[in-house]
Amino acid sequence: MLQTEQLRQMSTQVRRDVIRMIHSAKSGHTGGSLGCADFMTVLYFNVLEHDPKTFSIDGKGQDVFFLSNGHIAPVWYSVLARTGYFPIPELGTLRKLGSRLQGHPSISRQLPGIRMASGSLGQGLSNAIGMALAKKMDGDSHLVFSLHGDGELEEGQIWEAAMFAGAKKVDNLISVVDYNGLQIDGAVKDVMDLGNLRAKFEAFGWLVLEMNGNDVTDVEKVLRQAKACCGQGKPVMILMHTEMGHGVDFMRNLSKWHGTAPNDEQAEAALKQLPETEYGDY
Questions:
Q1: Which of 16, 21, 73, 166 has its CA 20 to 30 A from that of 40?
Q2: What is the residue-wise DSSP string for 97-123?
């Protein structure tokens, strides 16, 4: 467990990791990774009941997390390494030939912490529901978490899965939408307006919460509230309001940073805005 200031420091370190990884690889998805750093840090250090030393694909006896919007793999790799799933220096191999840290999460190289290949958008909620149902069948009281992009909600499979989870009362599932309003082609409202997401998920039988995804205190409070709501007959959906590129002023709220790597000058400028921490660079 990390205290509030430690969470902020670790979130900053995770953002430093993201910038350095993607800059070195010369490709990757920067904006959403920076925006989700606070959430991922709080989830893995303070909320998720997990043990890197006993990781298994089936996830028995532990909480399980699925990253459906797999393009933000860099932020996930950072928190996995810094919670002990694999050596921190391995972060420097992102997208390198033969690396276990592929551009999207992959299970082909058996990287600890990863249970499904993702990045083909729309599939993660179905996988999370399957794991949640398996836990119910096994008598395992642990929970399943999933993270999705708001642009990903344009995929029809998401809504089939949402309807199923509500109808079948999959109440050991907590799903989160990174609600930053941007996707690779621009503003979500211009590409495919999502309308009233709260009303839509409630109509599908979900309990809906909202939180500021760039405030570690609010993230922890709402995630714990969500856990307390499990087991009451409804899956839980959290609409997480974040800022794409959070932490770096020239990347903030710009869809062009969805899938753009910083060049040398931009990486240097970004790291100046993300001060070094006690946790140290890889």
A1: 166
A2: TT-SS-SS--TTTT-TT--S---STT-
- 33 touches 72 (CB < 8 A): yes
Q: State how far the Cα of 43 lies from the Cα of 10, in Å rounded to an integer.
A: 12
pLDDT digits (tens, 9 = 90+) for 85-121: 999 999 999 999 999 999 999 999 899 999 999 989 9
17: left (phi over 0), alpha (psi -120 to 50) or beta: alpha
Q: Is the pTM of this model over 0.90?
A: yes
d(CA 282, CA 279): 9
Helices (H), the chain: 4-25, 31-35, 37-42, 73-82, 124-138, 156-167, 188-192, 197-203, 216-229, 264-273
**Rg for the chain, CA atoms, rounded:** 18
Tens of pLDDT, residue by residue over 15-24, are 999 999 999 9
Can you spell out the DSSP letters for 30-76? -HHHHHTHHHHHHIIIII----GGG--TT-TTS-EEEESSGGGHHHH
CA distance 156 to 7: 36
What DSSP designation does 7 have?
H
